[in-house]
Amino acid sequence: MDYQEEQSQELEVLESIYPDELEVIKRKYPDVHFRISLKLELPIEDLSILKKQHSIEVDFHLPANYPEEAPIIALHPVETPLAGYEESTSKEEQEETYDDHGNKIVSHLHDGANEIHFDSYIPELQVQIEEHIKDDMLLGMQMCFALLTSIKDHCESWFQQQFEKLEREHERELQEREKEEQSKFLGTAVTPKSFLEWRAKFRKEFEIDQRDFNRRSLMHHGRLTGRQIFEEGLAGEEEEEDPSVEVDQLGNKLKKSL
C-alpha cells in the first residue's frame, strides 16, 4: 500500500467536503496534520432559545503507515456566542431570583439548555471513537470521514439526552413547587384529636389552668365583693359561688320588698 498516496487522496476528498471547516496544518508526508471544525446541529425544536453555537474541533495526526494504523485524534469543544447574545458575568445575572414569599424562582427550561457543555463529555467520546475504529474494523481503509460522521452523531445524541434530562428535572421541580404553593392555601386538616392536643398545648403554654385556679382561689378564699368579681372578670364561672355573696344578694332582695 502506498501510504503517502492514500493520505494525499483522502485529504483532497476532505477538503472538497469541508471547504470552509478544514484547516491544513501540515500537508507534507509523513507527518500530515489537519483540523476540522464540526458545527453541531442540536436536536431541539426551538433553536432560537440557544445563545451559543456548539462546535467540535477534531485534530488529526496521520501516522506514517495510516490507514493501517489509526489516526491520532484530539477533540476540543468550542462555544461561540450567537448574534444578539453577549456573554455576561455581571453579578445581577449570576444571582438567583426569589418571589415575594422568599421562594427561589424556577428558571425557564431554555435557560437550562444553555448550561449544557461538551467539556465533560469529551473523555467518554474519545473512548467511543476508539471503540468505533476497533468494532467496525476501519483499519486498512480511509476512515477520517467515517470518524467525523460518528463524532458529530455522538455529540448531537448526547446533547439531546442531556436536554431531555433537564426537561424531566425541570418538570419535577415545577410540580414540587406547585404542591408547596397549594399546601399554603389548604392548610392542615383539623380532627377532634388534633384539636384536643392543640388545646392542651395552648392552655399549658399560656398557663391558663393555673390562672383559672388562682382566680377561683380568690373567689372562694379572698371573699371578693361583687364589684371586684366583675372587674376581675370572674363572674360567670361555672364553679360554685361564694356563700357570702349569696347572702348579700338575698338581703338586698328583702330590703326592696319591704
Automatic annotation (TrEMBL):
<dbReference type="InterPro" id="IPR016135">
    <property type="entry name" value="UBQ-conjugating_enzyme/RWD"/>
</dbReference>
<feature type="domain" description="RWD">
    <location>
        <begin position="9"/>
        <end position="158"/>
    </location>
</feature>
<feature type="region of interest" description="Disordered">
    <location>
        <begin position="235"/>
        <end position="258"/>
    </location>
</feature>
<feature type="compositionally biased region" description="Acidic residues">
    <location>
        <begin position="235"/>
        <end position="245"/>
    </location>
</feature>
<dbReference type="Pfam" id="PF05773">
    <property type="entry name" value="RWD"/>
</dbReference>
<protein>
    <recommendedName>
        <fullName>RWD domain-containing protein</fullName>
    </recommendedName>
</protein>
<dbReference type="InterPro" id="IPR040213">
    <property type="entry name" value="GIR2-like"/>
</dbReference>
<dbReference type="InterPro" id="IPR006575">
    <property type="entry name" value="RWD_dom"/>
</dbReference>
